[in-house]
Amino acid sequence: MRLATWLGNSLTWWLHTAVVWVIFGFEEAAFLGGGSGAAAVVAQGFKRSIRRRRPNVGLEGFEASARNPDVYSFPSGHTCGAVGGAVAVSFVSPMLGSIYGVLAGFIAFSRIYLGAHYPFDVLGGALIGAVSGWATAELLMRILPELVALWSASFG
Q1: How does the average pLDDT of the chain come out, rounded?
Q2: Backbone angles phi, psi at 112, to 5 degrees
Q3: Rounded to an integer, what distance in angstroms lies between the CA atom of residue 8 and that of residue 5?
């Protein structure tokens, strides 16, 4: 479970994105990294606004088995980023979307299992991540061709 949580760290998503870029290509990496990154940013906005305390603070005598990256619980940023990346990349690669969807499920479960989040935090993270991933994919489908053309003209 700790490995699943580590795989969902926001910094680890840069590694996911780099590996996908090398193996599958720029477009897949842009959608995975973009979806995950956008979802993580949205999650942090919610966390800073709602400020829900984590279970290890809110439940007397409860100890989490995970180190938490911040003090706020809702929504689960790990889940949000994982689902956001999975949804976005599924627009250009259903196979990668499926792989990352399964990984997102493990990451989400690990956050509850390790005591870092309440179940509602994870469900909220999944919903926010899905919407963020979808919105990112919609945006990238419109602007990515122009960005690639601009990049090629400038540096190609």
Answers
A1: 85
A2: -75, -45
A3: 5
Please give the Cα distance from 102 to 8 (Å, whole number): 12
Domain 2-155 has what CATH class?
mainly alpha
What is the number of residues in the chain? 156
For residue 115, what is the DSSP state?
Answer: T
Give the span between the Cα atoms of 32 and 148, in whole angstroms: 16
Compute the average pLDDT of residues 53-70: 65
Give CA separation, 36 vs 33, 56, 65, 68, 154, in Å.
Answer: 5, 26, 25, 19, 27
As a whole number of angstroms, the longest Cα–Cα distance in the chain is 60
Rounded CA gap, 111 and 113, in Å?
6
Interior/surface letters 66-87, b for 16+ CB within 10 angstroms, e for the rest: bebeeebbbbbbbbbbbbbbbb
From CA 153, how far away is CA 156, in angstroms rounded?
6
Tokens representing residue 46 in the block: 């919610």
Answer yes or no: is pLDDT of 47 > 90.
Answer: no
Measure the CA–CA gap between 70 and 67, rounded to whole angstroms: 9
